[in-house]
Please model this.
Amino acid sequence: MSKYKKLSHAIYYCTYHIVWVPKYRYRVLTGAIKEMIERDIRGISEWMDCEVTELNVREDHVHVVVSIPPKVAVSEYMGTVKGKTAIKLFKSYPGMRKKPYWGNHFWARGYFVSSISVDEETIRKYVRYQEKEEKREEKDQGSFRLL
Model:
């Protein structure tokens, strides 16, 4: 299977490594909460046509490697994932909301994101090849025009 994905008008490889933490980096992502968060991240991602390739929920942070189509902004993806998981978590575990420091927010503001791309050298070779290929095609077309 190719790492490139297709939409009706685009072929893309938009893969990101994203990390985010609970508010105050409390170590609460354990046991049933951890399992629920993992399941919900995968479900929300699938619903948004995003593909989770790696997911690791630690006690105090979450790592995900996810392919996000170009029609979905990373900020939109993160807003949806953090919002929906927090709402469900507070509904499932009302005691979590009672702590004075949670308020209505489970996740800390912000996140870390880094794009993961194809190998830079592969792209350089592709670009070099394309330039040579285009020059060859122009030359071939020019010789046909003379006829």
In short: The helical segments are 31-47, 74-92, 94-98, 120-145. Residues 120-145 form the longest helix (26 residues).
